[in-house]
Amino acid sequence: MRGLCFKGKENRSIERNHNLERHKQKIRELLTSQTGLQKRKQRTADVEPVFAQLKHNHNFRRFSLKGIEKTELEFGLMALAHNLRKKITA
């Protein structure tokens, strides 16, 4: 039966990354803790429609400024305008 599944002549060795296993366990504990559950509930808000609306309705395809600080400022202004539009129309 082994010959049907495995064509190699030598035995295989399987190695486990214990460091990765330790990190996975730590993350699993953090996600299932009380604060982890609270933060996961906050993640359910979907932000994709906001970007789609900025791109489609307001024709915002690319930044006109260069540099991290300037693009952050430009996007901040777009987000501010988006939030003001929501407040006005709501």
Automatic annotation (TrEMBL):
Residues 2-86 form the Transposase DDE domain. InterPro entries: Tnp_DDE_dom. PANTHER family: TRANSPOSASE (PTHR33408), TRANSPOSASE DDE DOMAIN-CONTAINING PROTEIN (PTHR33408:SF2). This is Transposase DDE domain-containing protein. It comes from Flavobacterium cyanobacteriorum. The lineage of its organism: Bacteria, Pseudomonadati, Bacteroidota, Flavobacteriia, Flavobacteriales.
